[in-house]
Amino acid sequence: MAAGGVVWVTFPKQNLIPPPRKRLGPKLRTGVPLISSTAVRAYSEEKVHEVVLKQAALVKQQRPNEGCKDWDLLNEAYERCGEVCAEYAKTFYLGTLLMTSERRRAIWAIYVWCRRTDELVDGPNASHITPRALDTWEKRLDNIFQGRPYDLFDAALSHTVSNYALGIQPFKDMIEGMRLDLLKTRYNNFDELYLYCYYVAGTVGLMSVPVMGIASESKASIETVYSAALALGIANQLTNILRDVGEDGRRGRIYLPQDELASAGISEDEIFRGQVSDKWKIFMKNQIKRARMYFDEAEKGVAELKEASRWPVWASLLLYRQILDVIEENDYNNFTKRAYVGKAKKFASLPLAYGRAIMGTSKFF
Ligand SMILES: CC(C)=CCC/C(C)=C/CC/C(C)=C/CC/C(C)=C/[C@@H]1[C@@H](COP(=O)(O)OP(=O)(O)O)[C@]1(C)CC/C=C(\C)CC/C=C(\C)CCC=C(C)C
Ligand SMILES: Nc1ncnc2c1ncn2[C@@H]1O[C@H](COP(=O)(O)OP(=O)(O)OP(=O)(O)O)[C@@H](O)[C@H]1O
Ligand SMILES: [Mn+2]
């Protein structure tokens, strides 16, 4: 392929990532009552805030387009990204169809890179993945940002990062999250968990904003918008963790703050045995409360995005947020009952998402 120094290896026509599993990889992390003042001051928040500021500053810079200029190849690359996205996340894919075609395909390219990164530690080959393999993946990321993609999916991302104000840090941080996931099976407190959630999901928010675009009429500061995007990633991840407690437990993993479990008087053994006790219900209520707090934070920022980008964000936010309602409906049995939002509810939330997107507010819908 064209573009200075691009290295091409054989590129199989079929997916480079394995076909989706029936149930996409578990990945869990957690939370508890409302964030404590210690947590607010925590190192993790400071570190994350630094990245947010850097990423926000990039938006103001004009970047030269050094991406690949082989348009046929790029079109194919983006098309393939769209196919993967459609296969792994149908509802979300539908949402992206309302975005402008340029933004939509950029989001697809980012989605595919994130999905592949996650598949490294969560997919069928996860047991063979070592920190060294992640180092190789990170070098490959550097090459993507330097215009030297390794395969077609990378080429799409390479073009995207040359076209939008995307910094490399959130991508590196996501790889860091995968490193952490390889090594760590317990989180001492919410600060530790928060950092993990930032790595694997908050980063997605930071990657998405430059592509989705901030509305020209927005009066909010760029930092405010990034903070909302970060909050959505955290909220999604906390929800994902709460949904998958049972599944994670069966893999010997507990993505819940150990100190909060201890204060609630819940032992690891009770989690492994899947005991839905009264103390578990109280503990879960607090966890859900915290996740909702992050959703609330995120909701405040959606209206600041460009109008065409709001709908997919609202759609995915409402879908994910409803998982918390279903956990409640399941009477907090997240050990053996998967909180699943039925098709009817899912479709019912689409007009709501659309209404909110066009009104620019959640006041009337
Ligand atoms: C519109 C929209 C949602 C855009 C984001 C698209 C995108 C690039 C998604 C990548 C997601 C991904 C594959 C991340 C890898 C790590 C991972 C799996 C994280 C978990 C996602 C849920 O996936 P799933 O349920 O399939 O998980 P399982 O593997 O099955 O367990 C996460 C829970 C986190 C995803 C985080 C987001 C989608 C962040 C969204 C934030 C924004 C789009 C910012 C919006 C802006 C404002 C101002 C609110
Ligand atoms: N009905 C659901 N209930 C709970 N979680 C869901 C549900 N549908 C999707 N999710 C979660 O949200 C993520 C992204 O949502 P999306 O709707 O795009 O996924 P999907 O699995 O392709 O759904 P579908 O094929 O039903 O449209 C999924 O990977 C999954 O973890
Ligand atoms: Mn899916």
Automatic annotation (TrEMBL):
User: Which UniProt keywords are given for this protein, alphabetically ordered?
Assistant: Carotenoid biosynthesis, Isoprene biosynthesis, Transferase
Give the pathway annotation: Carotenoid biosynthesis; phytoene biosynthesis; all-trans-phytoene from geranylgeranyl diphosphate: step 1/1
Lineage: superkingdom: Eukaryota
Q: What is its EC number?
A: 2.5.1.32
GO cellular component annotations of the record: plastid
Q: Does the keyword Protein transport apply?
A: no
Q: List, in alphabetical order, the Gene Ontology terms for molecular function in this entry.
A: 15-cis-phytoene synthase activity; geranylgeranyl diphosphate synthase activity; squalene synthase [NAD(P)H] activity
Q: Per the record's keyword annotation, is DNA-binding included, yes or no?
A: no
Per its UniProt record, what Gene3D superfamilies does this chain match? Farnesyl Diphosphate Synthase
Family, according to the entry, reads as follows: Belongs to the phytoene/squalene synthase family.
Q: Which PANTHER family match?
A: BIFUNCTIONAL LYCOPENE CYCLASE/PHYTOENE SYNTHASE (PTHR31480)
Q: What is this protein called?
A: 15-cis-phytoene synthase
